[in-house]
Task: inverse folding
């Protein structure tokens, strides 16, 4: 496992021993960041179920200003900390050792990007989305990206956070969500638009610059 691009391109990262953990593949990770492209620059990134921290570290390498890593495992937290030291990104990051929902209830600030990689074969916990929505953790114009098993249907039953695209990479899917323009209208993309989207797979206003000025 390595950093794919950015300031620490090619840097090898520490992984978990054994094969029980299913980290995001380099192909899916590269595709995701190619979609997000320059919007990652100076952003605030939240990596939930962070594992080795590879996704959040990739975000920092590509220009994110700061990343918060959340994982309930102390072993994962140690690996994330070591990987941050290896890349020199410790000053750009925070690590929270806690259950995902408990962490989201207490976490401070809002984020331009939230990446979620829950246990691969588990049912997706809608309550996690509901907490993010209720606490307004996702900045308008930002993206929530969910990695999940291809046979698991991504949820789309929330008032403010709307599914707008899903893309398959091997037996994994990346599903992209954005904040709806209003509580009654979903922000969605047609199949034709999704096929042609490059910089972003979702519609919606870009508010990162406005948020940073506050």
Result:
């Amino acid at each position: 496992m390595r950093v794919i691009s950015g300031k620490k391109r090619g840097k090898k990262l520490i992984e978990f021993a054994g094969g029980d953990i299913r980290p995001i593949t380099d192909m899916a990770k590269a595709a995701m960041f190619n979609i997000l492209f320059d919007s990652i620059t100076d952003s605030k990134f939240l990596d939930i179920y962070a594992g080795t921290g590879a996704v959040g570290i990739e975000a920092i390498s590509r220009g994110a200003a700061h990343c918060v890593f959340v994982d309930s495992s102390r072993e994962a937290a140690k690996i994330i900390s070591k990987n941050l030291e290896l890349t020199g990104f410790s000053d750009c990051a925070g690590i929270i050792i806690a259950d995902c929902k408990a962490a989201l209830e207490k976490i401070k600030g809002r984020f331009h990007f939230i990446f979620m990689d829950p246990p691969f074969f588990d049912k997706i916990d809608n309550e996690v989305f509901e907490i993010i929505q209720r606490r307004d953790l996702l900045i308008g114009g930002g993206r929530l990206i969910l990695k999940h098993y291809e046979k698991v249907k991504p949820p789309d039953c929330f008032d403010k956070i709307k599914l707008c695209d899903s893309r398959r990479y091997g037996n994994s899917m990346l599903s992209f969500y954005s904040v709806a323009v209003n509580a009654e209208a979903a922000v969605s993309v047609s199949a034709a638009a999704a096929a042609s989207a490059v910089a972003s797979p979702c519609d919606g206003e870009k508010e990162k610059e406005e948020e940073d000025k506050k």
Observations:
- Residues 26-213 form a domain with the Rossmann fold fold (CATH 3.40.50.150).
